[in-house]
Amino acid sequence: MGRKGWLTLFITLAAVLAVAGASQAAFLIRYPYFRKYAAQNGVSLVQARKAWGHPDKISERVMGMAVEASLENWTKVSELASVDIKSRIATYYYNLANAHRDQLADKLMEYYQPFETGLFLPVGEKSSPFQIGCAGDVWFALGEMTMAERDAMLGMLFSPEHKGSRYLRRLAETNLVTGDFEAASKYLRMLLNSPSDRKWAEERLPGSWSPEFRPFVENKRKYLPRTDLVHGMDQNQLILRVLLNSNPSNKMALDYLLCYDLLTKDLDAFVADYVPSLTASHLYEEAMLIFLASKGGMDQENFIHYNISPATLEKFNRFVTIYKRDNGSGRNLTDEFGKTYWYYFYYAVKNEK
Amino acid sequence: MRNSKVISSCVLVIFLVTGCYSRDVRPAGDHTDRTSFMFPDYQEVTIPCNIAPLNFYYTDPDLTRAVTVFSSGGESVTFRGREVVWKEKVWKRLVASASGSEIEVVSTLKSGTVEEKRWKIHVSDDPIDPYLTYRLIEPGFEVWDDLEIVERHLESFESKVISDWRHTANKCMNCHIHSQARGDLSMFYLRGEGGGAILNRNGTLRKLSLRDSSMISPTVYGEIHPAGRFGVFSTNIIIPGMHSFANRRMEVFDTASDLCVADFDNNEMMSFPATARDDVFETFPVFSADGKWVYYCAAPARPVPAEINQLMYSLVRVPFDAATGTLGAQADTVWSASAHGLSVCHPKASPDGRWLLFTVADYGTFPINHRECDLRMLDLKTGNIFTLDEVNADGSDTYHSWSSTSKWFVFASKRGDGMFGKPWFSHVSEDGSVTKPFLLPQGDPHFYDNMLRSFNVPDLGSSSVGFDAEEIGRVWKEVPAEDFN
User: Would you say domain B38-124 falls under CATH 2.60.120.560?
Assistant: First the structure.
């Protein structure tokens, strides 16, 4: 091959590399959270694409929520969840971000709610690895470290390479919270040997806790269960009640329990679990009105006890009037009442698929 | 000038390379999983004369210099640096010279001040069976992905996969067990579609559907009779649950369990009224060394999980007729749960008939997350029970098996990190005294630092099982499961 041939070959190769590089750069700009989530799972982009397929706008947004939640950036999670993309995992993070701002109940009906699975992601044979990898975040937030540890372990088990700092960090944290330093030290050592996790791990080494981490752990410890009970993997209500029996001040657990009762339309459980002096929301007022109306308790004493405002009562009466007038049809209720619990209670239907 | 530049560049390269790859060994010390100055801690352990090299590292993060000198029979070997990694030939020579005696070790460690530690490795002239099988699995939450059953050669660092997810469409597989450490008599389960009990008899592999219509489940725990014709098994309805106390993690319990016997020659399942009672949970059956008894664990049935912490299993035994495969009607209590206030699991008889090793825990039938779970050894000649204080640690110690000589046993222990089971070995003397156990050595002394899987049911074999994952894949795909009636 002559000099011209070599030059042509060189230019061609350079062009191919430039195009490939530009394409890769465009991919990274377009899907930054895909890259971050892949890094949290300890896999390259090629491995990530092989395992999870090519990202799209929706998966990018949901991965963003998962990434930011793992970093406790709840404002960022809220921003990413601001558009309702009708995804179970997006709802899960939307609810969790709201719970961190004490707005779980108030904002529950403003978003797509796939019944209770938007509060607690199912972990089972039909669950995607991504869903399993996200499922423990709520338990960690609530102070239920057994479930948080289990889900972190399962997340790692189903990640493409059975590893990832996302899971190791959570495993270290759950054990630091429970005081199991022997278990935590294994994960911290692994993280110390990863340049991108080294600083994080150093701040959590026993005896070297950073000023931010110490109160974080102490706060989590307040919510640890003080009585032991063996429960099924999916007995979410029971698990929440155990948390609340130990710490009635765990308001996030109380709101999760009440919202769980409401999303499963279990009003008897809701009334049994509801302590009006500990939490309040227009959602709970709405639910109580359905209960009182059906059980014959629509009196002033109950309205006061359950903090039901005159405005909510008046709105409920309007809802009932239209509901009766239209023989249960919801067509004239959607605009005004579409984001009330009454509408959810009467018209939300579970899609078993 | 030019030379100094070259040297500087070399130093820089070495610095970068070592800097990039030097390991951070923190955290270490009290309340961590590295409490000893070395890991694995091989101080004062007793090892068989045929074991692979004991590689280890020093755990002090501030260590600046380490010199380790091993001496025995006039020979000495010196290592410099945090990691002590043997050449196999050198190790074998030193251990051969120390067989029946000991290797003296001096560790001179500098971290601020210089400290000298003197310790010994005792070398038994009783060899250990050269093979160990185990299942590698992420810690038990009743789910799996990418499972493997491995056979490790204990005299070296070689291992082979004898069954794995690649060849079985990611099926669940349960642990491999030998009969009295025989490589030519062993079994394990492949679960799910296309699965069955894989029986290895004299190198012939069969796939068996060990279930008949009267059984409450397919067979679960069990053992092959020493003569090879029969197997005794439990059938269990197994339910997993979670503790709300985080460090207790998962509890697994039975809501029903019975015993049955499989006749491998006639493809027949047999159950017996005395060991299929609704009011008693029966589980973990094994044969005595002579095959004339079946030992198992039995507990009065209780509502679970509500009364899980009152569920206590006793160790009992019934006669076994090796001509007909019949279990006797009357069970004798060997170790009473109510008398001891503890629950028994996993009895295992030594092949020489002298010992019965078992696990005790505060309650239940799933001790792998019970920190208090310890091993006990029953002298079948005298009835004495040994508490094995030298062996047990703060962490679940269970899933043990015997060597063919009955001189060694291996068990899975979660000591250290409390989460990941690892195989530990201990020597048993004629008088029942046992030695400080040692951890399965690995080529890389940091192997366990990065290991995120448990070694499930380590089981010793005097010879290799002879099959591999590819062959198991073929059996899974091509061999139909034999029905049992």
Answer: no
